[in-house]
Amino acid sequence: MTLFRGLLQTALVAVFLFASACETAPPVQEMSDARQAIAAAKEAGAAEKAAFHLKAAEDYLDSAEKALNDRDYSEARYDARQAKMKALDALKASEDSE
């Protein structure tokens, strides 16, 4: 039983370390995805056809950039993902209005 407990503790420590390591790296891919989605929405005319969604996307991206500068990578990652989702909403709204 002691061997099992030791293995379980080791596994839990490994999972914790892996999970915490994920948040120590800047969200480079998420930031890039958000910027690309915003650019695509703008190209599709979102500034005129879906300004509300586009503004929300840009606001989230601004927030992500500030969090990134503060090295709050978890917050930056979350905001970048939100920016991408809002930009995709803007893109869809732009395409639907045609």
Which structural traits does this protein have?
98 residues, mainly alpha, 5 helices, 0% strand, elongated
Q: Could you characterize what this model shows?
A:
This protein is mainly alpha-helical and 98 residues long. The protein has one domain (27-96). It has helices at 2-22, 28-43, 46-49, 51-69, 73-96. The radius of gyration is 19 Å and the shape is elongated.
Draw up the topology in text.
Layout: H1 2-22, H2 28-43, H3 46-49, H4 51-69, H5 73-96
H/E topology pattern: HHHHH
What is the number of strand segments? 0
CA-based shape: elongated
- Total of helices: 5
Helix-residue proportion: over 70%
Radius of gyration: 19 Å
Q: Report the end-to-end length measured between terminal Cα atoms.
A: 67 Å
Category from helices, strands and their pairing = mainly alpha
- The poorly predicted ranges are none
Short description:
With 98 residues, this protein is an all-alpha fold. It has helices at residues 2-22, 28-43, 46-49, 51-69, 73-96.
